[in-house]
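Lab notebook, bench 4. Still working through the backlog of constructs that have no structural model yet. Next entry is a single chain of 274 residues. Request: give me the structure tokens for it.
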Amino acid sequence: MTGSEESPSFRLAYVPGVTPAKWVRIWNERLPGIPLTLVQVPAAEAPGVLRAGEADAGFVRLPVDRTYFSAIPLYTETTVVVVPKDHLITAAEEVTLADLADEVLLHPLDDVFDWAAPPGEPAFERPATTPDAIELVAANIGLLVVPQSLARLYHRRDLTYRPVVDAPQSGVALSWPEEATTDLVEDFIGIVRGRTVNSTRGRTTERPAADARPGRSDRGGTQQSGKPASKSAGKSSAKSAAKSSGKPAGRTAGARTGGRPAKPAKRGKPRRRS
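Model written out:
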């Protein structure tokens, strides 16, 4: 693992449709001294940004080159078709690709789906970007199939969308160059995986040793200094002292006979001889 001293901040790339706000907030709470810089990039350019070292990690769309990148899949999005609000498709709760067979479907150059053959009738020209395709949908030129997050991102009041149940889906992952797994990358992985601050996995920080408090013993039963000797220890010491001095230890003989000291024997008068 390489060190993170060379980078005073953590640069996080993300593609359109991904909302990294939750993870950024947790980062700022846990690592307030290390600023996190967001870098928004088109989905097709995200791998190049990570390869060039222009970001430390990124939220990207799958698939990625697993021979170069590490990736943690996060979720898979619902695929929807964007249509004008007065389109016939809006009468259904969901549709299939067969329902779109006779529709003109726009296929932008930045399409995130790897279609073997795009469904529907092809448009006269491919839009350059997804926002451009959204404008064409609003102009009744055609329909557009996208992940639901993009339909929400480019929402317009005159457009709506419906799920396409059998369409390809787009997955989102946290990815970074495998050989550039820095300490800061490990920290961000822990945040994304939901690890707590005190988690034993990932990078850990040294904790100061607990203060030794008088009157407590460690797990092994070793007694800390400053604690008065116990009663049993006192008794043992008294017994040892008694043995060496020849005197009885512990309670007195009187105490053993009821707690009162023994009375001395009275000396009687000598008996008279008869």
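Notes after review: The mean pLDDT is 81. The longest helix spans residues 231-245. Flag for follow-up if needed.
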